[in-house]
Amino acid sequence: MNEAGDPSKVVNLSQRQGPASERIGELLNAVRSIAGKRLQQWIGNAFEHVDDALFDLAEKAENNAAQMHYFDGMREVRKRRPAVERSFLGTINRDLGELAHPAQPPQASAGVMSSGPVELSLVADNELEESLAITSMIGKNESRLSRDLFAVNQRLSVICGGHKVDDASNPVAPAILSQAFRQALHELSADMRVKLIIYKLFDRYVLSSLEELYQEINAELVRAGVLPQMRHEVVRGGNAKAADGSVHGGNQQTGAATATPDEGGEIPSDLLQTLHALFSARRAPAIGGVNGGGGAGKHAMSGPLPSANELLGALSVLQSQIASAGPLPYAQPGDAAELSREVLQLKGQLLTQIGALRGERPSHVATIDEDTIDLVGMLFEFILEDRNLPAAMQVMLARLQIPYLKAAILDRKLFAHRQHPARRLLDCLAEQAKGWSEESDRDHRLHEKVKSIVDQLLHDFDDDMGIFERLLVDLQQFQDINKRRSELAEQRVAESTRGREKLEQARRRAAREILDRIGEQKLPPLVHGILARAWANHLVLTLLRQGEASPEFRSALRFVDDFIASTRPATQPESRQALRQMLPGIERALRQGLANVAFQEQDVERLLAQLHTYYRQQLGETLAEAEVVAIEEDAAMLAIPDSIQPVIDHGTTAATQDDDEEETVEVPLDSPEWHQVQALQPGTWLEFCLADEAMTRAKLSWISPMSGRYLFVNRRGLKVADYPPQELAALLAGGQARVLAANALFDRAMNAIVGKLSQPETTPATGSHIE
After folding, report:
1. Residue 116: domain span
2. Region Disordered: what ranges (predicted)?
3. Spatial separation of the C-alpha atoms in residues 560 and 515, rounded to whole Å
4. Is residue 399 part of a domain?
5. Within this chain, do residues 219 and 366 fall inside the same structural domain, yes or no?
6. Buried (b) or exposed (e) across 338-349, using 16+ Cβ within 10 A?
7. In terms of domains, do 411 and 438 share one?
């Protein structure tokens, strides 16, 4: 606690008003009243905005299921809101009342910040997601509010009889408020996506307003004479948070004071507490060995534990050795296995290098540093095993282990904050790498960009954390340029595919309309040829240009009926008269239709002449033998311009294509692969390993609303393939296609690490054994 000015001006509680407990109660009640009023107002304001936020998301939902999640969440929040608010405000009110009783710290009553063994419920994905959201909120606001919060902590410590109040025990600090809110949300059985939205609103309307609360509490306590002239200096150390991003180590100075922070206490993160507990459990069998109770003797023989500066110095030497080895070559078979061995050996190399620098090799490092080394090691082990990354990219990214270990020692928030520049850079590199292949990167532009960033970190990164932000901006600019190019190409591919599908659909429709009208009738070759070729194309163009509801399309179908009717035998005077009345309309419609499909005038006249001859025969007029032969020959050689493709045969084949596919590809509609296909969204990347073809990575670009086919493009936006749903499900079932993970590399790695550490150990944990 830092104070200035006349000590007599600092309140003496026992002298100002009777027993100290009465004075403590009076001042704490004042603080509780201020906090209760403000928090009730702000929490209510946050919940007032939940409906609007969820409704907006429901409107933009990618499918009906997601939309229903948001609507269900709205109903659940309306129903449970009073219980959540009561629980949250009640917890804070109770914790403030118990501040004066050191034997019963508030975090114990909250049930979320105790320093005992951490429950392993965070292994679940939802819990991990929730913990990361809370960690981010806490870190951001503690840094922003450190000045006013420090003053509140000091004044509360005074009125509580000297019992220390800090960020981890102050009921109105961001950490306790966030954890109390998390506990209160247990009243809510809503989807995690809904809870994350509520957390964002809590951050916006409660935590972002805390500066006002702290200033009011400080003003009230100053009026009561509690540290009226205290300077607002934050002493870094212990459980204090290093908002300035300074180096943290097991035994080094931070800020204005020398401190040995609690192991893992630098970051009040449930996730990191969980990892720390898991690492500790893994090392428990080693008690009496290198890092256990028997380590004291070795510690004494090998000198003090390495400081953060020693660790950074040794890492810089190892980093320079890698950088001086020359440019990174293309990945070769076996590179990943070799790098995996290097990942496991790094801790031993690090201690050997420290020994070379200080003259004696330490036997071990501080637990917090060992946790960091092991965590970074497991992260890069995950990268080398991650099937989402092509082998060439795995090898390049794995070279970043030492720069990222240095970054994690310099700033332990790297693993806790999703928006940390180093974390975002690695996620962005992995996302770009996911779609890479030799075929899609023939100019090596992406490969060279990733290689350039890796080289810069290896050569240039010392202790300037700003390099990650600069490289991230550079990579995002590169990504934006390539994204614009690929989106244009992708749009052209989708439009072309959409056009072909419309044409295909129109062909099918025209073929079915004509075939349905012909039925079992045997038409003369001349009439059948006109319908199957010229008129079918006229139907297709009319469908594409005017649509099926247009008068033009209905008129074209009526012609088919009339044309077929005109072929019926006219043996009676009445039927011959009816045929004669139909012929002018048939000729007129046929002229218009043939002109629509680009028939030349001379071709139209020749065809009409053939029809005139045919109808004279229908009407019983005597024809010369040569005329009859001409009709039959011309019917077989009906002149169709080269640019017009006949569609009857094509259309009937296409119309039965799906049926043929379903006969040859049998994937049950209730199979996991079928459900996986149905759940695919545009933007999802897949890996295809087809027989006799190179491995291909492709992004789902478009799902046809007409045929249901799935269009895939490479990272340059060029078409790779398109599949009907059944065929795609069959490829997944046969292992010839695989869906790549959509979530960020860091998130997947942290989930995998927590899961791995939670399993019974069969082999030593990564790097936990020091050679």
Report:
1. 7-246
2. 240-261
3. 10
4. yes
5. no
6. ebbebbeebbeb
7. yes
Q: Are residues 554 and 590 in the same domain?
A: yes
pLDDT, tens digit (0-9, with 9 covering 90-100), for 573-618: 898 999 999 999 999 999 999 998 888 989 999 999 999 999 998 8
User: CA gyration radius for the chain?
Assistant: 38
Cβ pair 227, 154 in contact under 8 A: yes
Do 446 and 715 contact (CB within 8 A), yes or no?
yes
Domain count, the chain: 4
d(CA 20, CA 202): 36
Tell me if the pTM is above 0.85.
Answer: no
Same domain, 201 and 337: no
**DSSP SS3 for 598:** coil
Supply 709's token pair: 């086919």
> How far is CA 710 from each of CA 420, 507, 659, 690, 713, rounded to the nearest angstrom?
36, 21, 17, 17, 10
Percent of the chain as helix, strand, coil, to the nearest 5: 65, 5, 30
pLDDT in tens, 670-703: 889 999 999 999 999 999 998 888 788 999 999 9
Q: Do both 309 and 419 map to the same domain?
A: yes
CA dihedral 51, 57, 62, 65 (to 10 degrees): -20
* Count of beta carbons in the 10 Å neighbourhood of residue 194: 22
Distance of alpha carbon 286 from alpha carbon 769, whole angstroms: 9
Do 500 and 611 form a contact (C-beta atoms < 8 A)? no
Of 150, 31, 171, 154, the C-alpha closest to 105 is: 171
Helix (H) or strand (E) holding 683: none
